[in-house]
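Q: What would this chain look like folded?
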Amino acid sequence: MSNRSIFVKNFSANLLLQITTVVSGFVLPPLIILHYGSAANGMLASVKQLIAYLDILEAGIGASCIALLYKPLFEKNVERRNQILAATHRFYRLVGIIFFILLIILAFGYSYLIRQQIPYTTTFMVILLLGMVSVLDFLTIATYRILLQADHKAAVLSYIQAGITLLNVLVCWQLIVHDTGNIGLIDLQIAFFLVSLIRFVLISTYTRKKYPDLSLKRTGHISLKDIPQKRDVFIIKAASLISQILPLLLISIFCGLKDASVYAIYLLVFNAIRLLLHTLSNGVASIFGQTLVNPSHNHPIRHIFDKYETLYFITIGFLYSCATILALPFLSIYTAKMTDANYYQPTLIFLFIALALTDLRIPADILTGAAGRFKANRNRAITEVSINLVLSPILLYFYGFYGIILGSLIAISYTAISVIFYANKYILMRPSFRTIFKILIILMPLLVTHFLTTDYMYTINIKSYVSWFQLAFPLGLFYLLIYWVIYRAIPKI
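A: My prediction, written as structure tokens:
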């Protein structure tokens, strides 16, 4: 299968997943806020972030093993493949046990901290039920996911997850809408847990059928010690998770769960855009990885990376140029009935757009990971989290939760600039000029939009989704034309 076919297949599947995830992400929060209150929504958002933090126990083994699997998969070396996967499986089983222990500690601790805002038992059970999904993932299908991602079959994972996400939304929606006062947050999480079990069965069944020669029993002498740079990947992943989790955690503890809910709602919008961007990333790492290990590939890595980078940058420019004008009116409509907290905060829009633009580093991040250059990223990861941990609390004191976002922006910007320069210099073996030039080109329409519409943003008055679409459609076409011209022009510059 050609690289183009692999990309199209993974892109289509991931697009379906991201659309499903975006839709579900917008459907449930309003129902939860209106039915249970903003504090409940803030608690759920915080708990999900904390559980994600526990995932650092995975310690980078997944990314390291994916990079290690490219060569045996390319060479069709079944024995070597099984050895790597067997070592990975043993590690994941251990992680599952440790994760469960820490989950119990988290449930006791966080439930106690916010007991004045949410009943202790409710928070405890929510944490336990949400976290058990990750525990079972480590114990059952984590190794299978690694194999499918490395072998160009990420599309299968996307299709399964899309179906499960949709089913979960339908079940939760039915429970909330038809609730007569008996359905609580715990009941919703029980439903989520039961639906998630279907995913485990589907992935396990598919993998066993697709790879009849797969064995996770100990063979040969390979162990986790033979998996390179896992410690470096752990540091990188831990830093990334801390940067993602720190804002919401600090807000929920020091500013309150209602402010955390406001932050989570704005984050919801921009995560939706990021999810759409990630459709361009799914499966690309395996293409980069196998191109790097195959010196006889028809197209060198520079050629493949340059085309992908350009497409990704153009998509970022288009989406965030539109978001500069459309995000606040959408949120005004979306939160119109949410009256127990102040959800109208225009300043947050611009801070989130600035923060989101650090995603310009994603192509370089993917390339660096595919090349197995995890050790090289370790120091910048440590620097990023250090900046975040120092600046965010200080800026929180002076500017509230605006300061927390600003601290994250400064820290992540450092990493973005650093990894872009590294990927160009040490992997692509070229100056960073072309990447920087493309960034400047795609940012021009966005910056013009920002300066021309700053005042307009505070006065725009759109009361319905119909009116919003009437604005969004011509605006989208306008920016689509602009960025299509830029996309066509860049290769000739």
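The chain has one domain: 3-487.
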